[in-house]
Amino acid sequence: MWPFICQFIEKLFRETIEPAVRGANNHLSTFSFTKIDIGHQPLRINGVKVYTENLLEINWTGLTNLLDVPGLNGLSDTIILDIISNYLVLPNRITVPLVSEVQIAQLRFPIPKGVLRIHFIEAQDLEGKDTYLKGIVKGKSDPYGIIRVGNQIFQSKVIKENLNPKWNEVYEALVYEHPGQELEIELFDEDPDKDDFLGSLMIDLIEVEKERLLDEWFTLDEVSKGKLHLKLEWLTLMPTADNLDKVLTSIRADKDQANDGLSSALLILYLDSARNLPSGKKINSNPNPLVLLSVGHKAQESKIRYKTNEPVWEENFTFFVHNPKRQDLEVEVRDEQHQCSLGNLKLPLSQLLESEDLTMHQRFHLSNSGPNSTINMKIALRVLSLEKQARSPDHQHSAQVKRPSFSKDARKSSFKPQVPVSPASDPNKPVPASPVTDSDKKTDTSDKSQPPNASPQWPTDLSRSSSSLHASNFSYSPSHLSVKEPTPSIASDISLPIATQELRQRLRQLENGTTLGQSPLGQIQLTIRHSSQRNKLIVVVHSCRNLIAFSEEGSDPYVRMYLLPDKRRSGRRKTHVSKKTLNPVFDQMFDFSVSLPEVQRRTLDVAVKNSGGFLSKDKGLLGKLLIPLASEELAKGWTQWYDLTEDGTRPQGAS
């Protein structure tokens, strides 16, 4: 084939590329290829690498032999990727003063929005990953958890051979920007070679900040089974010490936790500079100063400033404080070159409690140093409280409507025994009304008294869906409906009318002067039934047909469902993704924990969406469907084809 390929390429260059280059610019009108030769030996392909996700490939030029050592190449890649990952998360600050009068020190002294206290309590019904006799005998797992909040990473202890581990560990993380930031938790089974994945969980911090205190079981994602028990507390940073005694009492009273060092306050320190430091051991040489800071058993150190006795650091530090009435801040300036002390300072934190706004900004004289040696610092103490800080009435959160809100009445898991959710800090406070989207209005006005057109029937081949059963247990309290509607999820296209507008625009492009059929967006086949024995609504997603192509390569469809008005993340159900097809077959069964009288007042929200990769622009809506469940035939069930529309209104049975 090689000679013919050469002729084809030469013809391509002469007849296609040459005229295109000449027509691009008048100065290139005489452009031509004088000779086209790709050789006489055919191209040889030694291997092809295929990736399912984007990976950063790092090659060390000139160090090939060194990186042939087993494990060294992977170790270097891991270290570099970890460094890059820490810069690609919140919080990261780059200070650029735009007004000359603004002090840079104020910009470089960020106060966190809050502190997230994570009680990593226990898990239940995890998957057993350890096997014996080549997989014949299934064993248990050695689970541990990795918790991420921005660039802060915590790892729990490993519980050996236990599918229901109890950790009872507590972690505290700083949150600088909670809109868009999430708590990420991954569970793994520890193995000698490679740890196995046991499930993951992501919780938006806006939800925690609104509810202040969450104590419940969460269903793990990306696995067939498993639940995780968490207690999350959102602690506000208070600039007064009025309720410090109350906070100290509360953290001392909690004696059941493995970590008894709960914090009552946060110390924020801005290390500016030092002046007139001594020369150290050698009189004629300038030192290389660095600063060691410690509160209790926690210590941090600054960067080294070389060859100067007036160093400027401009660095921030934070310390969690257990009892500010009894603890001290210890500061020591050291010479890194000669390993000697240049001065020290001991500041009782009780002095901050007597300062205005619990803040001190001044030059402190160093002990055991020169006569005029000082260090300039700004220090602030903030008391950690579950109570909400008073805000002006016109203050509104920029991301208030983007995520679902948790309710103590609605957050009840069907898992037994149920863990009671602690009440909010101020139950008498009026609850602000959540915005109602267009889809909510259409759902409320839809006719729920008419049953589906097709005759009800229950399929006998549901056993084929048992392998893809998604066991997500969730119950919704009817008392929640009269109090507050949940805020739409940011992942739901109901709260994003842009998705519907883009779909309508795509329909107009497809029509282009022609008349589309009765179902221009295609159809979806569903089986819907309520099981009185299990007290669950069972929905089987069979297949779709005649979907629209989202791109030139087709579509990668999947189905997402909510049981309205519950649009929280925990109430979402999703199928797997079918790659490059307009007629996907899913055959997956899902359930919603809800009683028959309650489900007849609800609406099933179904959306067929196109899956895209990370940061891909090919994500979008393929069609929607809203099914009122006010049918007397719901106990028997039915299987039916439904037409997909742009906004899900007026669903029509097809067969």
Write a structural description.
The two termini are 53 Å apart. The protein has helices at residues 2-24, 72-87, 104-107, 205-211, 244-253, 350-353, 438-445, 497-511, 596-599, and strands spanning 114-124, 131-132, 137-138, 143-149, 152-155, 166-175, 182-189, 196-204, 213-219, 227-238, 265-275, 289-295, 298-301, 312-321, 328-335, 340-348, 359-365, 374-385, 523-531, 536-545, 557-564, 573-574, 585-593, 603-610, 620-628, 638-643. The chain is an alpha+beta fold. Residues 253-259, 391-496 and 651-655 have low confidence and may be disordered.
Summarize the entry for a quick read.
With 655 residues, the chain is of the alpha+beta class. The protein has nine helices and 26 strands.
Q: So, the CATH homologous superfamily of the largest domain? A: C2 domain
The helix tally amounts to 9
CATH class type of the largest domain: Mainly Beta
Mean pLDDT level: 75
Q: How can the largest sheet be summarized?
A: 8 strands, antiparallel
Q: How many domains make up the 3D coordinates?
A: 4
CATH topology (level 3) name of the largest domain: Immunoglobulin-like
The end-to-end distance, rounded to whole angstroms, is 53 Å
Q: Per CATH, which architecture of the largest domain? A: Sandwich
Number of strands: 26
Unreliable spans are: 253-259, 391-496, 651-655
Instruction: Please give the radius of gyration in angstroms.
Output: 31 Å
Approximately how much helix is present in the residues? Answer: 10-25%
Q: Which word captures the global form?
A: extended
Q: What share of residues are in beta strands?
A: 25-35%
Structural class by SSE content: alpha+beta
